[in-house]
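I hope you will forgive my troubling you with a question about protein structure. Here, with my thanks, is the record as I have it:
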Amino acid sequence: MKAACDKHLADLVCNIEDALLVIEYGLEEMAYLLVASCLQVLVRELPRSVYNSNIMKLFCGSEARKRLEIMGHASFTLYYFLSLVAMDEDMKSNTTVMLLERLGECATLAWQKGLAFHQLGCVMLERKEYKDAQRWFEAAVEVGHVYSLTGVARSKYKRGHKYTAYKQASALISEYTPLGWMYQERSLYCVGKERMMDLDTSTELDPTLPFPYKYRAVALVEENKIEEAIVEIDKIIGFKVTPDCLELRAWFSIVKEDYEAALRDIRALLTLEPSYMMYHGKVQGNYLVEVLRRHVQQWSQADCWMQLYDRWSSVDDIGSLAVVHQMLANDPGKSLLRFRQSLLLLRLNCQKAAMRSLRLARNHSSSEHERLVYEGWILYDTGHREEALAKAEKSISMQRSFEAFFLKAYALADTSLDAESSSYVIQLLEEALKCPSDGLRKGQALNNLGSVYVDCEKLDPAADCYVSALNIRHTRAHQGLARVYHLKTQRKNAYDEMTKLIEKARNNASAYEKRSEYCDRDMAKSDLTMATQLDPLRTYPYRYRAAVLMDDRKETEAIAELTKAIAFKPDLQLLHLRAAFFESMGDSIQTVRDCEAALCLDPNHSDTLELYNRSIDRTSDVQQTK
């Protein structure tokens, strides 16, 4: 009877009010299923539920945690998730501190304790409670969290012990394998040329760290080298778009009186963070927009569409974002623009901001069929492919539209397609192209259609699609057309096509990377070097260079090339390749180590499993021989 009652009540819980009403009963009566249902609702409402004192009372109090623990619901994973959400919302809040304290109480393994203590140290550092920060970092170090040594050094520095912090950072570099973040940290505790040397070394070891670029850019401005400063900050914006980097570049543009560029960057950063405060949190971004607007040419909505078309065609995503931001200022309820905004943000790897724009597009939908499409994209982007397809089909049943057909085709194409499925996707894209839309989206549809034709080995129709896309200035279609030429063994034409893309979309790392496939080794190495300079997060160039070195029997250099990338991006393919190299060198121990690391990322990766088992057997044979 109790179990049936528990299940019945659990089924009735559907919102926060219900959950708060019955969870106390569930805890008192040890109703496992009911408490689980309530927790599911409360967690689903994050981050909004972080601001509900009644909800946080359930999680934050030590006694509350014990009650959940008795029920089997208080886990390290739960509190780690809750604390991450709280830190993301407000790192300095008491709620964040209490959740992290509960996280520490849930920790049983050394690595769990180290993580909890380190996070507490970071929060205390942010709250400027430096003595407590140092205490938590030292506690993390005691349980083996080496990275917390940096926190200890930072805390000591903040407490006025600059030389002690410098010595600690230096000891870290000498005692462990030097990494970029170590040199970056030590640079904070020295000055002049020594600081610049540390920052340069930091970038060399880990080109993804943004601080060295920003520091060098500011140093160049102080020397009145504005253009060089912008070039320096462009390096990081090229592969990691953040509001602070955009703000910095905007100030540089203001110094050189390039108000259009400054306005572009401020509009883009406000797209990422609408409430962003500039100038150390003293000036609202929107205020600066109004100030700068007086110094630039004013555009009508029609002008904006033309500007958007130009920037989209030249693969200028930040410029496109700025134009869309301006258009939304004139028409904030335009769901179509919000959707375009989300597409641009996804291209810039700004997933959180993209999802916010997509939700706003849904909220401002002018019709049911349009709302269903945006809901479909939300579902698709959060991994619910089948539900997304259902939304697309329902939208089509109400009204045939480009976006509904495109969504359905896109979701269906996101699998290994057989001949019948490919034909259906082609049909859907052709139906989409018959519906009204603008050149920006039709170019994308033609590009996707060409890709499906290529996968079906129908190269001539694919080429026609790519040419049609290029005729309406969908610049990325050059890459698809190059692929067609390559498959037709017209390598020179493929190379030339990618060159056209590079000329139109400057500083496009993927274009250089792709062009490297259509030229000889020396030219390929040159293109891949450029790709790495533009976007060091791309792993293919490292793998290619390592493979070339291995072919030349330069094993040590090949391993070093892969290690360079693994240091800041432990990618599955990089780890697997290095493991294979180690195996060819007869180093079974290192092979096993890299295989284990790779299998942490994908436990079912068949090639790595095979390599791992082979190396384990070889290691066992060696030990038995001894």
Remarks:
- The chain has a mean pLDDT of 89.
- The longest helix spans residues 606-625.
